[in-house]
Amino acid sequence: MSIEVLALIVFLINLPCGFFRAKSEKMSKAWFFWVHAPIPFVIALRLLSGLGFKLYTFPIVITAYFLGQFLGGRLLKILSSRRSEELH
């Protein structure tokens, strides 16, 4: 598996987690769960991909991780604002 595919999968795993994290109260147990839930999957993907923990992969995977979390939270805000506009 290439680093690009790994980064894409990490990003896609984190989108729903970021969405649900944004629904949780900041620093609550649920919030911490949604921030950290993807980590075992990311570790497994790193090992299964054959890339392991090579130094050059860290910035790419970490960026994909946080970008997925961030955009998942933004998706919630966008959907919430659209829903409130439809109700008015």
Fraction of residues in helices? over 70%
Question: Strand share of the residues?
Answer: under 5%
Overall form: elongated
Total count of helical runs of at least 4 residues: 4
**Major β-sheet, in short?**
none
Order of helices and strands: HHHH
Give the count of structural domains. Answer: 1
The SS-based structural class is mainly alpha
What is Rg? Answer: 15 Å
Low-confidence stretches: none
How many distinct beta strands?
0
Average pLDDT figure: 93
Measured between the Cα atoms of the first and last residue, the distance is: 48 Å
Oligomer: single chain
Account of the 3D structure:
The chain is elongated, with a radius of gyration of 15 Å. Helix 1 packs across helix 4. Helix content is 81%, strand content 0%. It is mainly α and 88 residues long. It starts with a helix and ends with a helix. The model has no long low-confidence stretch (mean pLDDT 93). The protein has one domain (3-87). It is built from four helices and no strands.
Explain briefly what this protein structure is.
This protein has 88 residues and is mainly alpha-helical.
Defining key terms:
single chain, 88 residues, mainly alpha, 4 helices
Write the layout of secondary structure elements.
Elements: H1 3-23, H2 29-36, H3 39-49, H4 57-87
Helix pairs in contact: 1-2, 1-4
